[in-house]
Amino acid sequence: MDRIEQIRAFLPTVAPTLAPSEFHERAVALLCAIFAAAPEQLTVDWPRVQWFGVEGGVEVPVYKPELATTDPGTLTRLVFAAHDMCVRVELRPMRFHTLRLVLRPRPYRPGSGRSPWEHPTLASALQKWRGLPWGDSFTHDAFEADVPLSDDQRQLDAAGRYADPTVQLWFRIWEMGAARAQAAAELRYQPRLTSPNLEAPSHESHA
After folding, report:
1. What share of the chain is helix, strand, coil (3-state, %, to 5)?
2. Mean pLDDT, 10 residues at a time, over the chain (207 residues)?
């Protein structure tokens, strides 16, 4: 089962009455990319997720999202993935330890200029940032690092969706994060090794 099929199989388990649209699937893919986790590993309060219409958007309560630019870098992945997937993301406070992510679809028609609602690509957003008076004041060589993709990651899925290599990169990040989480879980539940020569501490009081 590939990653997109995994999302499609997961959605009915948390929203049985929902008829998922392409954007609903893309919204879950975005969450997986942000938190580098499989759908079932997300700390989402699924019963309180609001699914609006066919393409109306999704509002997602996330428990303890720990958004940061690095360590673990979820905030950076949120911004990058949102631009790559053309999703407008808004953060709203909800309650203690819970943040609401409001996800809205935005069309991508590069250079058309026909709609004020078009979502800028990551490249155009970066170009705009560099054009601001302070946009080129703080740079780092690693910021422009290129991550190569294998040939199989550039292939279309069966439905022809998420074919863009940059979107495949976010699936790759999710896969790497899920593998690290699994390895950590296996290590956490290994039995502790004890020496048979160690004696239990005595509870007798010393005079």
Report:
1. 40, 15, 45
2. 89 95 93 94 96 85 93 93 92 93 81 64 84 59 43 45 58 71 66 48 50
The SS3 of residue 64 is coil
Q: Using CB atoms within 10 Å of the CB of residue 41, give its burial: 0 to 12 exposed, 13 to 18 middle, 19+ buried.
A: middle
How far, in Å, CA of 174 to CA of 77, rounded?
A: 10
pTM score, whole prediction? 0.65
- Residue 152 DSSP SS3: helix
CA distances from 148 to 24, 46, 70, 144 (A): 28, 34, 21, 13
Strands 87-95 and 98-105: antiparallel
Read off φ and ψ for residue 140, nearest 5 degrees.
-150, 140
